[in-house]
Write a structure and sequence with these properties.
The protein has 451 residues and is α+β, with helices and mostly antiparallel strands. The protein has 2 domains: 14-19 and 259-450, 2-Layer Sandwich (Cytochrome Bc1 Complex, Chain A, domain 1), CATH 3.30.830.10; 36-241, Metalloenzyme, LuxS/M16 peptidase-like (Cytochrome Bc1 Complex, Chain A, domain 1, 2-Layer Sandwich), CATH 3.30.830.10. It has 17 helices and 11 strands. It has helices at residues 14-22, 78-88, 98-105, 130-143, 148-168, 172-183, 186-189, 196-201, 204-214, 230-241, 292-302, 309-315, 346-365, 370-387, 391-407, 415-422, 427-437; strands at residues 36-40, 46-51, 57-64, 109-114, 119-126, 220-226, 264-270, 277-283, 324-332, 335-343, 443-450. The strands form 2 sheets. Strands 1-2-6-3-5-4 form a 6-stranded mixed β-sheet, with helices on both faces. A 5-stranded mixed β-sheet has the order 7-11-8-10-9, sandwiched between helices. Residues 2-25 have low confidence and may be disordered.
């Protein structure tokens, strides 16, 4: 159920280039934002509604500000373990696995995603069964059944998953080491899955404490997206969620990171590596800063699509020097980094590294053309449409946007404006941002050799 992968997630005439840029519709021209409303219940639960009556289905999703970054040393894996229990354990009025069977019985689907900074639970159902989904979510938010036998079973299942994944997934252990180097502090750098030794020592009280402190209305956002009657939905939300007791917000935040600006490179042997590889990471500004939209567009210019700079340089048929290229911006609450992961033959690894910095140097020396910027904006626009194509896509996009904006000290009221900012980025801003962050003394490099 964990959603992150190794990656994570482009005309020569001036008139034609201008046409490309003008062809990018602004966020304000789309009907998406006009259907979004949000409000807060007395107990602190944030509710986001997105009325999109294209099909008679609706998604109910709940996102908790609870992930591996909230774990304490020696307690890693508790957030992922709790996600398993939320899906299977049952609650005061719902027997084990009944949540799943109830949604399946009415023709719905459901799942969960555990991330470093949040955990999401969601189901998509026919609109006439909306009350069922809301009742199920409210019951497990209030009274999850954390009995010892269910805890022990989930813990054993997690231990087996840890062993299987570490023994079968190439580069998983290397990725974990890279994250520890890139983010450096325990909260943001340790494994989302947890360490096997920590999971073995976890107690039922550890899970209860995590649930009681973080799975509360004031630390959650409920999003309903699809076809529904807004007035009726507000009545149902009040019926099932307003009686949940309020709780104090989780205490404290995170200390500001302190990074040493200096080149850093390490080489390790990975017995599971199918080929040599290299991780490159550049630490970025706080998400939500004025740099964020520029970095977003740079992501599309460098990595997204077959015509992006690094794809053309590393993967084109004529001079293919890499087997695999992935990467992008990895945001974890108030931290972010730009990651690049390359798999290649040993003789080509250095060439791949040189090619990445060669492309970065080209951007530093000369402005990307208006045509190239226009293509990147078109890809960004298409990506936005893809990420909001279904009721489920829209619900997850809105929840994750809510937590990202909250981490930056902003509210949902600026979401449309935040999306618009990417479409206003200029070539000069791209050059400035590459000069600011994409330097060798701000780069963490982990070389992977086969054992």
């Amino acid at each position: 159920m964990i959603s992150r992968s190794l990656g994570g997630l482009r005309i020569a005439a001036a008139a034609a280039a201008l046409a490309v840029v003008l062809a990018v519709p602004s966020a304000a021209q789309t009907p998406f934002f006009s259907g979004v409303t949000h409000y807060t219940l007395k107990n602190g639960l944030t509710v986001i509604l997105h009325d999109h009556p294209d099909l008679p289905i609706v998604t109910v999703a709940v996102g908790y500000n609870a992930g591996s970054i909230h774990e304490k040393p020696g307690k890693t894996g508790v957030s992922y373990l709790l996600e398993k229990l939320m899906m299977t354990a049952g609650s005061a009025n719902v027997s084990p696995l009944e949540h799943i069977s109830s949604i399946n019985r009415v023709g719905g689907t459901l799942n969960a995603n555990a991330l470093e900074d949040q955990t999401l639970y969601y189901q998509t159902i026919p609109s006439n069964h909306l009350a069922l989904a809301l009742w199920l979510e409210s019951d497990r938010m209030r009274t999850l059944d954390l009995s010892r036998d269910k805890f022990e079973k989930a813990r054993l299942d997690l231990l087996e998953e840890l062993r299987n994944r570490k023994a079968s997934e190439p580069y998983l252990n290397s990725l974990q080491m890279f994250d520890e180097l890139l983010f450096s502090d325990f909260s943001f750098g340790h494994s989302l899955l947890g360490e096997e030794a920590d999971v073995r020592r976890l107690t039922l009280d550890d899970v209860r404490s995590f649930y009681d402190s973080l799975y509360t209305p004031s630390n959650a956002v409920l999003c309903i997206s699809g076809q529904f009657n807004p007035g009726r939905v507000r009545e149902l939300v009040a019926r099932y969620f307003e009686s949940l007791p309020a709780a104090k917000p989780p205490a404290g935040g995170f200390e500001a990171p302190s990074y040493l600006k200096a080149p850093f490179s390490r080489t390790i042997e990975d017995p599971l590596a199918s080929a040599p590889a290299v991780f490159l990471g550049f630490r970025l500004s706080t998400p939500g800063s004025s740099d964020a939209p520029i970095l977003t567009l740079l992501d599309f210019l460098l990595l997204r699509g077959r015509t992006s700079r690094l794809n053309r340089r590393l993967l084109n048929r004529e001079a293919k020097i890499a087997f695999q290229l992935t990467g992008g911006i990895d945001q974890r609450f108030d931290r972010s980094a730009f990651k690049i992961f390359i798999v290649a033959s040993q003789p080509q690894i250095q060439g791949c590294f040189d090619a990445v910095f060669s492309e970065l140097e080209k951007i530093k020396r000369s402005f990307p053309s208006e045509a190239e910027i226009g293509r990147a904006k078109m890809l960004y626009r298409q990506d936005f449409l893809n990420r909001t194509a279904t009721s489920l896509d829209r619900a997850l996009f809105l929840i994750q946007s809510y937590w990202s904006l909250r981490a930056a000290g902003r509210t949902m009221d600026v979401l449309e404006w935040e999306t618009e900012r990417v479409l206003r980025v200029t070539s000069a801003q791209i050059v400035a941002i590459v000069n600011r962050y994409f330097t060798l003394d701000n780069c963490i490099i982990l070389n992977i050799r086969m054992k």
